[in-house]
């Protein structure tokens, strides 16, 4: 249907001369907004959930409701309808979703003069609300991969599958920095490190927008994840310095990479609700970051100024406050259209605000011009069946194929527990019924070694409950087998419903592991869940621990391949795994004044931990200069990495920067600044180098609304390779310091009093390892660093690892899938070929 709106969208606009710096979308959007009445402007700022226009007892569209809302000029819809089956069916496949949205579009444009809606959805681990496409692991698994190319490909396929359903607007990626492991949205993040989240966020945004038919919506701006109690939606207390230097970088990188929209969050920052904050949404987002895309509220959040934050005495006042004080463009009102009346009343009393609302709607129309018209005119492309790869393990591992294995645990045959929340519906589903292509751990073992090669029995529920008779049987079965694989973890959840008061796993799960850890069996614990839960005695009773996190559909196959050594894993923990309740809020890069009994705060496993079936040796660290004398200077740090084991393996080489003394703020223990993933044959060496610049050793001044200036302090700095390297800089109070660890090197900056540097730092990248991969083994290759942004090249799907070491280790998870016929999963090599 080509109406007047689409004619403006698809054709040049007669009589409009484009000024310098104004793109065609800008002019077209302005022409459309100029034609709008005030009521049309407010309607375009309104977003409703799908259930508002569905029949309550069938899968059919309530066309009367669609027409009613179209006459109110509602501009956007979101979500899926299904929390439970209707007529025995869950959800829509891509073809059904596209037909539904096309019908919504046609009815809307018939009723409102030809102005289309834009549809958005939470495709947070694949097209996860569409039945049929591949379901990828959650973002925490992507963070564990330390593989930006892989994340790009995951996002690219997600965009393709979401757009195939007729949905052009994707509410992802999540760029919050996990700061409390109890938080129910930890699994939605890339982990606790700002640089890692920045690299992965850029890759994800570029992947989602690579088709030029879908838009990313980065979320949740800003500070949402720093909950002091672990409860979702807590008020957050945070300094400007921490906000800008820890929480802002991932959002800034994604915006610089071209993210087309942003979603704000549910919290108040230092008592100031973000949804009403001029300082955050205008001064920081619009002015400092220069963001000119669409700003979307989170679910019902404007009304929450009244219902949750209690800073407004009515919903009508809440709407007026948010619209007058911020630059929010679309209100995810979700469940009613009262917002429209409230906004119109506000404009009657404050007519000067209409120009601000028209500016918002211009941004909305520009997004529609980019996306909706293309989706309207493009034929459907349906996804095919998924294939996948994924990996993990430890010293007891890999298992011999002929091993005697007892498989048990509440998550051992439950694909829903592998997928977590945001899977077909908000809270996800338990069980296997919804996942016809899914592979549980039990099914993965059957596929790999056959049903006769292991014994399966489980009577333990996800909360650790089991009756005495079944516990006795489980103990007997464990005693009869060489190995016991116990798959435990969490049920599916997300957001507030996932709040917990105790960071530990249920006591019954811990007791069960202790009970089956009898003489004669080696216990391998596989963890499946969205956040690190305290393990108590489990590590001491286990011979190996695999942390699969939320690998989703194909996770069971991947875990089986790890268990039996078909794949050598290479993932690394993107978040510190706490050992005690007091350390759940302590990331690896905490301030030096955060001390536990005057020592490093002990973790179960530290950020970056991840073992392998091979071992890597680091040597020959070097830096090319000892003194930085100007803001333009760079420094190159080099290390040689050698595979000293017996099998090929992948290693993520990490470089950390330490500033032992800092005047502007108490320094952090260390900060990840570069990483690169390499692959080495047995006996092979590679020289890996990274180039550091002022963007790496400068920090943002704690100032909002002044343009984000950065400052470099003249002092001594230390570079360190590997996450577990201790440079002992805090034990020596003399400058220059005496650095004795061979994986550490110090340098000084001397720019005559420090220097201000541009805030327009280059986009984060991991670097590309280059060299002659066909060289004989043993050999040495060279990896040169700091490459351009991720490109659509071959990615490697990994989890994390465990090695043949005489101690309990952790393997953290990550998986990826591919879709036929556009990609082929090379299962034998553990790679993802796209």
Mean pLDDT: 86
SS strand fraction: 15-25%
Count of DSSP strands: 35
The assigned CATH architecture of the largest domain is Alpha-Beta Barrel
Q: First CA to last CA: what distance?
A: 36 Å
Structural class: alpha/beta
Q: What is the general shape?
A: globular
Helix content: 25-40%
Describe this structure in words.
With 834 residues, the protein is an alpha/beta fold. It folds into three domains: 339 residues, Glycoside hydrolase, family 3, N-terminal domain (TIM Barrel); 240 residues, Glycoside hydrolase family 3 C-terminal domain (Rossmann fold); 171 residues, Immunoglobulin-like (Sandwich). It is 27% helix and 19% strand. The strands form nine sheets. Strands 9-6-5-4-3-2-1-10 form an eight-stranded parallel β-sheet, with helices on both faces. It has a six-stranded parallel β-sheet with strand order 13-12-14-15-16-32, with helices on both faces. Helix 3 crosses helix 14, helix 12 packs across helix 13 and helix 16 crosses helix 20. The chain is globular. The C terminus is likely disordered.
Properties at a glance:
signal, 834 residues, Rossmann fold, 3 domains, beta-glucosidase, 8-stranded parallel beta sheet, TIM Barrel, single chain, Ig-like_fold, Immunoglobulin-like
């Amino acid at each position: 249907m080509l109406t007047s709106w689409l004619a403006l969208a698809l054709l040049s606009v007669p009589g409009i001369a484009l000024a310098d710096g104004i793109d065609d979308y800008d002019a077209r959007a302005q022409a459309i907004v100029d034609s709008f009445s005030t009521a049309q402007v407010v309607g375009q700022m309104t977003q409703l959930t799908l259930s508002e226009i569905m029949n309550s007892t069938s899968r059919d569209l309530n066309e009367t409701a669609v027409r009613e809302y179209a006459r109110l000029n509602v501009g956007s819809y979101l979500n899926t309808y299904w929390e439970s089956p209707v007529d025995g069916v869950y959800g829509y496949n891509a073809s059904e979703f596209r037909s539904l949205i096309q019908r919504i579009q046609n009815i809307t444009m018939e009723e409102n003069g030809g102005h289309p809606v834009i549809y958005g959805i939470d495709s947070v681990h694949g097209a996860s609300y569409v039945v049929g496409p591949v379901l990828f692991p959650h973002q925490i698994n992507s963070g564990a991969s330390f593989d930006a190319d892989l994340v790009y490909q995951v996002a690219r396929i997600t965009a393709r599958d979401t757009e195939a359903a007729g949905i052009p607007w994707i509410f992802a990626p999540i760029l919050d920095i996990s700061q409390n492991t109890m938080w129910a949205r930890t699994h939605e993040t890339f982990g606790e490190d700002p640089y890692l989240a920045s690299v992965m966020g850029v890759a994800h945004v570029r992947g989602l927008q690579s088709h030029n038919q879908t838009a990313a919506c980065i979320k949740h701006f800003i500070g949402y994840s720093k909950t002091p109690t672990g409860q979702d939606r807590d008020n957050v207390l945070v300094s400007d310095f921490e906000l800008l230097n820890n929480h802002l970088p991932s959002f800034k990188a994604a915006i610089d990479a071209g993210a087309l929209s942003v979603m704000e969050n549910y919290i108040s920052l230092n008592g100031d609700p973000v949804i009403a904050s001029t300082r955050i949404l205008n001064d920081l987002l619009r002015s400092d970051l220069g963001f000119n895309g669409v700003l979307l509220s989170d679910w019902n959040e404007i009304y929450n100024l009244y219902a949750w934050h209690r800073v407004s005495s009515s919903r009508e006042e809440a709407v007026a406050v948010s619209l007058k004080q911020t630059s929010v463009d679309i209100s995810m009102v979700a469940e009613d259209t009262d917002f429209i009346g409230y906004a119109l009343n506000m404009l009657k009393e404050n007519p000067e605000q209409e120009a601000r609302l028209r500016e918002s709607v211009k941004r909305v129309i520009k997004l529609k011009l980019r996306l909706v018209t293309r989706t309207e005119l493009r034929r459907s492309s349906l996804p095919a069946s998924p294939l996948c790869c994924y990996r993990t393990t430890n010293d007891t591992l890999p298992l011999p194929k002929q091993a005697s294995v007892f498989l048990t645990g509440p998550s051992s045959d439950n694909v829903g527990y592998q997928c977590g929340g945001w899977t077909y519906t908000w809270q996800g589903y338990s069980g296997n019924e919804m996942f016809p292509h899914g592979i549980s751990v039990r099914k993965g073992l059957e596929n790999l070694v056959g049903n006769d090669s292991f014994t399966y029995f489980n009577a333990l529920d996800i909360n650790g409950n089991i009756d005495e008779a079944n516990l006795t049987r489980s103990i007997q079965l464990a005693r009869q087998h060489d190995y016991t694989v116990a798959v435990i973890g969490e049920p599916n959840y997300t957001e507030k419903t996932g709040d917990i008061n105790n960071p530990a796993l249920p006591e019954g799960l811990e007791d069960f592991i202790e009970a089956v850890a009898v003489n004669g069996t080696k216990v391998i614990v596989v963890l499946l869940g969205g956040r690190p839960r305290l393990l108590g005695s489990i590590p001491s009773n286990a011979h190996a621990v695999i942390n699969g996190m939320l690998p989703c559909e194909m996770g069971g196959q991947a875990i089986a391949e790890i268990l039996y050594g078909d794949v050598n894993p290479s993932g690394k923990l993107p978040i510190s795994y706490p050992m005690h309740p007091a350390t759940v809020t302590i990331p690896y890069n905490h301030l030096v004044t955060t001390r536990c009994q005057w020592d490093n705060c002990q973790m179960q496993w530290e950020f970056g931990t991840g073992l392998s079936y091979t071992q890597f040796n680091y040597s020959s660290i070097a830096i090319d200069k000892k003194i930085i004398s100007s803001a333009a200077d760079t420094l190159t740090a080099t290390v040689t990495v050698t595979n000293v084991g017996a099998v090929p393996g992948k290693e993520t080489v990490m470089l950390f920067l330490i500033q032992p003394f800092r005047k502007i703020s108490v320094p952090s223990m260390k900060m990840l600044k570069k990483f690169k993933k390499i692959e080495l044959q047995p006996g092979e060496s590679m020289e890996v180098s990274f180039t550091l610049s002022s963007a790496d050793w400068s920090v943002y001044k704690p100032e909002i609304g002044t343009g984000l200036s950065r400052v470099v302090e003249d002092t001594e700095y230390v570079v360190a390779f590997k996450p577990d390297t201790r440079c002992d800089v805090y034990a020596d109070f003399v400058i220059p310091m005496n650095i004795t660890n061979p994986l550490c090197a110090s340098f000084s900056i001397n720019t005559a009093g420090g220097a201000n540097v541009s805030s327009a730092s280059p986009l984060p990248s991991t670097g590309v390892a280059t060299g002659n991969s066909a060289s004989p083994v043993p050999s040495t290759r060279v990896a040169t660093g700091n490459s351009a942004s991720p490109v659509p090249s071959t990615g490697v799907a990994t989890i994390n690892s465990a090695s043949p070491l005489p101690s309990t280790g952790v393997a953290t998870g990550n998986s990826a899938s591919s879709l036929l016929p556009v990609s082929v999963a090379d299962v034998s090599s553990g790679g993802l070929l796209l």
